[in-house]
């Protein structure tokens, strides 16, 4: 007996075998059981998700000797002939090669004849969108009022190409892409039946590469069995198909979000030298960033598509970037991907995209500069564009700022003790040294944050709190550090430096001197000179061809 590929051997035979399409299987089972059968059905969806298989199952349900039944037996001669594709009463037509008016006219002539064995004569037209406009028009009347013994089932990947007059005469079912976790589970089922050892990581790698198509995943597993034998590991999947390991994509994303340009480029070179497909790596990177964007909006949406370890990585990366910056990053990489499609040197465009992405994440926008300058001038709370992250607030998530939100936060942050009192010091951490290291890690692009950090007095560590004090004159600096996004950024740096989960506690104290006044008194420059030397101010002066008059 000739070898049968997995995609055919494990093709669904009943409605319950359909994977990832419960809305379709349930509706069709109820329609058959209640005898509420339409005369025409249209199955829509991408390749390899079960459109033709669903059509054949429906045909078996209608023509089974025990039917119409929602659970065809699969043993009678009608069911076996339909499954094999040689039933006289189920005519499968390829819309791509039978798309002329003459083909449709012949179909209309044959519709009049009664079925040979079964209860219904069923016409299954695959890729129906390939029919010409004239062929569609020739089919209209027959499709609207067919004989009682005739059923039409259409399948297409491009429903927008089907005439509206055809769509209105059909019951439409949209089949969805199958979640990666369900594909991985089905691959493990096949591996168990075939006595193959398939590592879970390998199954997930195949599922990601299949992009929601079960047939593609089964074909890939077939190819891997021929390559590897009875044991398949994740490295085998990556080597055969040129995929990139999920952890590699996670690491590359982390380095981009942390602004580690040399590390990100080094990882890119490693993947290029090992023969990985640069287009595939870029696509995987964009998909991960899309998952990160969805995770920030609603984490539980991704439960069916990602494993718990990946969810932990998404949670960690979500703390490093605001939503608006993430949207800009995805747009930049998507534009780079479109350029890479036609470029002979794809690695060059990938390198440029990474460098540009890291620079743009660190740059302050003009709106941020104006808002921060206005805040420093007026003594108001700063809410820079890069630091706005309202996901936690139902008001902010709708794009509306709560007038009382900042006021409440400011009063809570700026609550000052009556007198300065040194906090208890931790035995294994030098708070001043930690703050010095943290300040050095703040990138130059975050000049407002760096200047604000320089204005802080390190009071010590009490419990899990790193206590920082500010003089009354430098309260605006404290409020810059006190924004939600800046706090998260500082606490992330604290964790990297100390390995401990410390929080930043900010207070205003009348007894503390102004750091700027101290610097001026020691001859290190006046506040105005510090202001002029700010990189953002210098850049703004250059852009607008301006100068500071006073």
In a few lines, what is going on in this structure?
The protein is built from 27 helices and 10 strands. The chain has 550 residues and is of the alpha/beta class.
What do you see in this structure?
There is one protein chain. With about 550 residues, the protein is α/β, with parallel strands linked by helices. Helix content is about 55%, strand content about 10%. The strands form 3 sheets. Strands 2-3-4-1-5 form a 5-stranded parallel sheet, covered by helices on one side. It has a 3-stranded mixed sheet with strand order 8-9-10. A two-stranded parallel sheet has the order 6-7. Helix 9 packs parallel to helix 11 (about 235-240). The radius of gyration is 32 Å and the shape is elongated. Residues about 380-425 and about 525-530 have low confidence and may be disordered.
């Amino acid at each position: 007996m000739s070898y049968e590929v997995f995609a055919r051997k494990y093709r669904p035979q009943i409605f319950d075998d359909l994977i990832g399409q419960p809305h379709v299987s349930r509706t069709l089972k109820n329609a058959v059981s209640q005898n509420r059968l339409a005369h025409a059905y249209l199955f829509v969806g991408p390749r390899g998700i079960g459109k033709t298989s669903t059509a054949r199952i429906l045909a078996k349900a209608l023509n089974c000797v025990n039917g119409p039944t929602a659970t065809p037996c699969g043993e009678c001669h009608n069911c076996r002939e339909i499954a094999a594709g040689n039933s006289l009463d189920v005519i499968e037509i390829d819309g791509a090669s039978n798309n002329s008016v003459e083909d449709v006219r012949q179909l209309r002539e044959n519709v009049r004849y009664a079925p040979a064995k079964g209860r219904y004569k069923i016409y299954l037209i695959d890729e129906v969108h390939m029919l010409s406009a004239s062929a569609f028009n020739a089919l209209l009347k027959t499709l609207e009022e067919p004989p009682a013994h005739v059923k039409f089932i259409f399948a297409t990947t491009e429903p927008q190409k089907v005439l509206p007059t055809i769509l209105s005469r059909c019951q439409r079912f949209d089949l969805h892409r199958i979640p990666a976790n369900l594909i991985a589970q089905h691959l493990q089922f096949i591996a168990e039946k075939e006595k193959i050892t398939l590592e879970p990581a390998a199954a997930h790698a195949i599922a990601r590469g299949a992009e929601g198509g079960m047939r593609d995943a089964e074909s890939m597993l077939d190819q891997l069995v021929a390559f590897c034998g009875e044991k398949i590991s994740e490295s085998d999947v990556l080597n055969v198909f040129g995929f990139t390991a999920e952890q590699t994509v996670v690491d590359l994303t982390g380095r981009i979000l942390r602004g580690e340009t040399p590390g990100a480029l080094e990882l890119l070179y490693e993947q290029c030298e090992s023969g990985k497909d640069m287009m595939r790596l870029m696509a995987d990177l964009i998909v991960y960033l899309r998952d990160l964007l969805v995770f920030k909006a609603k984490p539980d949406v991704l439960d069916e598509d990602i494993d718990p370890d990946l969810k932990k990585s998404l949670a960690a990366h979500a703390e490093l970037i605001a939503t608006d910056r993430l949207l800009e990053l995805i747009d930049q990489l998507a534009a780079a991907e479109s350029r890479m499609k036609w470029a002979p040197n794809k690695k060059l465009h990938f390198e440029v995209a990474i460098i540009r992405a890291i620079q743009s994440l660190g740059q302050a926008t003009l709106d941020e500069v104006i808002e921060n300058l206005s805040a420093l001038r007026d003594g108001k709370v700063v809410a820079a564009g890069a630091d706005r992250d309202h996901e936690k607030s139902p008001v902010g998530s709708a794009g509306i700022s709560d007038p009382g939100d900042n006021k409440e936060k400011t009063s809570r942050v700026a609550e000052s003790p009556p007198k300065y009192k040194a906090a208890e010091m931790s035995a294994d951490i030098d708070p001043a040294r930690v703050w010095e290291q943290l300040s050095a890690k703040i990138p130059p692009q975050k000049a407002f944050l760096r200047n604000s950090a320089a204005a802080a007095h390190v009071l010590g560590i009490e419990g899990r709190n790193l206590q920082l004090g500010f003089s009354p004159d430098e309260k605006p600096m404290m409020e810059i550090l006190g924004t939600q996004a800046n706090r998260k950024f500082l606490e992330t740096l604290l964790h990297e430096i100390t390995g401990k989960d410390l929080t930043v506690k900010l207070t205003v104290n009348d007894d503390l001197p102004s750091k700027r006044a101290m610097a001026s008194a020691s001859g290190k420059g006046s506040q105005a000179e510090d202001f002029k030397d700010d990189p953002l101010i210098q850049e703004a002066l250059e852009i607008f061809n301006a100068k500071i008059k006073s």
